[in-house]
Description:
Chain A has 4 helices and 3 strands, in the order αβααββα. Chain A has 107 residues and is of the alpha+beta class. Chain A has a 3-stranded antiparallel beta sheet. Chain B has helices at residues 2-13, 21-43, 49-59, 62-69, 81-108, 114-145, 174-191, 214-236, 242-264, 280-314, and strands spanning 160-161, 164-165, 170-171, 200-201, 205-209, 239-240, 269-273. Chain B has a 3-stranded antiparallel beta sheet. A two-stranded antiparallel sheet of chain B has the order 1-2. Chain B has a two-stranded antiparallel ribbon with strand order 3-6. In chain B, β1 (160-161) and β2 form a beta hairpin. In chain B, α7 packs antiparallel against α8 (214-236). The chains are: A alpha+beta (107), B mainly alpha (315). Chains A and B meet through α3 and β3 of A and α2 and α4 of B.
Amino acid sequence: MGDELIEKMRMELRRGSLTIAVLAQLRAEHYGYTLRKALEELGLSIDEGTLYPLLRRLESQGLLTSEWREEDKREKRFYKLSAEGRKVLSQLLDEWRELNASLDRIV
Amino acid sequence: MADLVEHYLLQLRSLLPAKQREDIATELRESIRGAVAERERELGRALSDDELASVLKGYGHPLLIAGRYLPIQELIGPRLFPFYWYALQAVVIVIAVVTGILAGIAFLTGARTGLQVLVDGFWFALIAAACVTITFAVLDHGSARFKMFEDFDPRKFELGVLGVRAAPLSPISRSDTVFEIATLIIFVAWWVGWVHWTPVIGSGAAIQFTSAIDPYYWPLLALAVVDLSRLAVDLVYPYRTWPRVLVRLTINVLWLSAFVLLFRTDGLLTAIAIDGAATADALSITQNVLKPTLVVLAVITAALIATDVVRLVRR
């Protein structure tokens, strides 16, 4: 029960953070695989089953743009932050920094 | 090897939204290829089927992955779910108790239809549960759409009745209110014929109301609707004030009058023979059950009236 509860709370904590991380990382263009690797190298692992649906959702919300392009003789879908996405990311980062500072003071 | 990936994607494709199916499958295929190529580079050889299966497992079950691509939809959201769950349990418990009593009566009177009573009760419970679910789904979506819970004025919690405002006397238990609402909804659903439930007891006869019930149909339905409205207000504003106690008292006096009138009306029921069985016994048994039931309801209602009178006097 304790482990389950912690896992559930961990997932809740990660959910919003992942969105911010993905948006921030897509200030530079990536396709799914390189995005996942880049996040992993920076210490944030995200499984494919979470990442790809998240990219689609963010795109449908107008925060990302994407295009199919050939690279290394293979068709890949490249994502990057849209103008709207930049605004939203900026607001989210402000919010996150405030929250983080408050938490630091509290704990 | 390619077969394993294609079978995985085939499973996934069938569950994806039609418009995005090809696009998503192509993107995932490319991603899987990348993951496989990287793993093969690490190992310096081609992957075995087991190793490939392990890579695919990392992506997750096709059903779960496809679900994440679909719009998030919920029939009843977390805001109202606890109340929905309570109402659902209350409805099922009330029906189970009533069905159990009727089945018991059927069994004790030597009926051969006790099982039929249980089957009827099961369908009744199922339909009632569906009604409760639909009601809460409409309430949940309606409240979200019209921002019922967001745009509120705390001053309106000081609720008046017909312009008369009064200080709270005592709180009203929300669980009691939900239970009463569930019971009344069941009654209304049965009374208007949304759920068909014909008691079959005794020597195999279906019991039905006669035309003697007709004068009671609309008044009792109206009374039930008014009472439901009162309970809905109790649900949102769960405290007693003297005007609201007065309203409940008035409604209960009307219920009590209805029970007394029904008790005094003869020939409310008739029995329709099933398979040519005699009907007299069944009718007699039912009347012997109906009259005591009305007495019990009248006593409970009288007790509620007395409680409200005491509340008003003490005020």
